[in-house]
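Each field is listed here:
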Amino acid sequence: MRKLLPAVAALLGATALVAPASAAVQIDFIQGGAVSSLVGFTVIDDFNDASGISAGSNYVIQSGDNTNGAALPQADSAGTNYLSVKGDGFATIDFAGAGVSGFAFEWGSLDTYNTLEIVLSDGTILSIVPGLSPLDNPIPAYGSHTDPSSNGVLQVAGTAGELFTKITLRATSNSFEIDNLAVQNAVPEASTWAMMLAGMGIVGFSMRRKRNVAVSFA
């Protein structure tokens, strides 16, 4: 098992060229990795069911290895249900609130007929296709079900304040398999911000009152 090499990060990061010049999105692929190895991420969907999918067609929630997909080999995913998008299908997953500053998921048997679309809060769409430039080396995309080089964790982060609102998985042939979608630093809803500010205001007022209490000595 190998941690992501700097060259890999540079090649994957080049996919952000379709974004505005101000965007700085870091895209890493950890070969043979698992989401549990990441620090600061919380799993929001383990795909035991389809409740987290907001739109889609020709996808299945399954376990095992068959014509609808191949079970992911990572330790976090072994023996559990996962999402498999079949040929000419798609599945969209929305992130709550204003978006998230980073996300990751376990991606199995990468192939050139897998396309991941990442939507930013400004409407920009980043597309990742394994095996096609600039992802042709050193990320193999030959659909191996077991080789760590084409099974691992995709990690995406906004390095200049970018937020991601949703992702769409597309496949032109069987299949596009993922599991254990995790997010980093979810952005609170406006109402949550209001409650946080109100709470801090109450605490500040209380502390100020305590400082202003007069003390006298007999």
